[in-house]
Amino acid sequence: MTTVSGSVVRDPVALRAAMVAELGEDTIRSQAVAAAFSVVPRHLFAPGEPLDMVYDSNTPLVTKTGPDGTALSSVSAAHIQAVMLEQAEIEPGMRVLEIGSGGYNAALIAELVGPQGAVTSVDIDPEIVARARACLQSAGYEDRVRVVQADAEHGVPEHAPYDRIIVTVGAWDIPPAWIAQLSEHGRIVVPLRFAGLSRCVAFDLAGGRLFSHSYCLGGFVPMQGEGTYSETLVPIHGEATLRIDGPDPGFDVPALRRAVHAPRTERWSGAAFDMPDELELFVVTSAPHVPFLYASQQLVDQGVFTPAVTYGTAAVVEGGSLAYRTKRENEDLGGWESGVYAYGPQAETVADRYVRLLRRWAADFRRRGAARIEYLPTSAGVPDGWYVPKRHGVVAVSWR
């Protein structure tokens, strides 16, 4: 149970105040967002859940699971909700569309837009819609949030235009309807999936294209309906797989399987390792078809792979050879040094290629927000530099 000043606390008001104080240390920057979190009773959107879990800022609360136990809907962790609301920079009087209903986040948005604003929340699942409406009514927000059942791929045109669209499900693409329903200088905040990773990106609209205002690490349960996406899994060693968005680009699987059973090549960059989310983004957007290597803890314990692979790490593949990023302690660097393990007949080549990427990132882009992420509708054509095609357009990433 959460404690305040050394005492066990069961009062939701006190727990809410403690959560807001914690979020204020490193996440909440604005008085308006802090005030919204201070007012909205989060526990009324998670009935039956222990109060300490409800008001733990890093704990999502699953509200529906599929037959296989996969989470289909949740009340997101307060931390990521605060991050996205700060990214959105919502002002009083704005019209906001929330994609993915849970109720709580919509209530926070209602506090931010005030009585002159409007909040519409849409979800494809009738059970989630009914639950959101019931929770909003319980908390006193039934007249301040409009909850709509529909496939969010098409937005909610009858209440457009929107000054802000906040997407609380993992999206593989940005449908044309979302862009069309934005106001002239609107913003979309979306956990966008591309190149095997997800980033919460705040996109500003300009000339029919979307340009990143900010981005950060973040993932959500995947979108359902027409916006559903899938990834390709390529088994290479028992419980080790390469995962890539979209179709298999033609990996030489038999050769890769032979490679990971052979001795590995080790290379160290001499460059500091930190901000792994920024480094990973640089690696996957600096080469074509960079998959993510995942492996079980058992294979890590057996020494086949390092712990980096348990949560997935970007791999550079060339023919029947591959390399992935690892790290080691380095006192001269004051922390950790990045390095590479490589396998296969071209291990030296892929290791050197990867190490060059690690060194370039450390020398030129080792900071937050160095990437510029753009979304271009199909009609805008193909950009220069690195990009990945989507169903309705392309995601392009450049480094500054």
From TrEMBL:
Keyword ATP-binding attached:
no
- What keywords are annotated for this sequence in UniProt? Cytoplasm, Methyltransferase, S-adenosyl-L-methionine, Transferase
**MF-aspect GO terms:** protein-L-isoaspartate (D-aspartate) O-methyltransferase activity
Matching InterPro entries? Methyltran_FxLD (IPR027573), PCMT (IPR000682), SAM-dependent_MTases_sf (IPR029063)
GO terms of biological process kind: methylation
Q: What class of enzyme is it?
A: transferase
SUPFAM superfamilies found in the cross-reference section: S-adenosyl-L-methionine-dependent methyltransferases (SSF53335)
The record's similarity note reads: Belongs to the methyltransferase superfamily. L-isoaspartyl/D-aspartyl protein methyltransferase family.
- Stated EC number for the protein is 2.1.1.77
Which locations, inside or outside the cell, does it occupy?
A: Cytoplasm
Q: What is this protein called?
A: Protein-L-isoaspartate O-methyltransferase
List the Pfam families.
Answer: PCMT
Q: Which domain of life is it from?
A: Bacteria
Q: Cellular component per GO?
A: cytoplasm
Q: Which residues form the signal peptide?
A: none
Record carries keyword Protein transport: no
- Please give the organism: Micromonospora sonchi
Give the chief site where it resides. cytoplasm
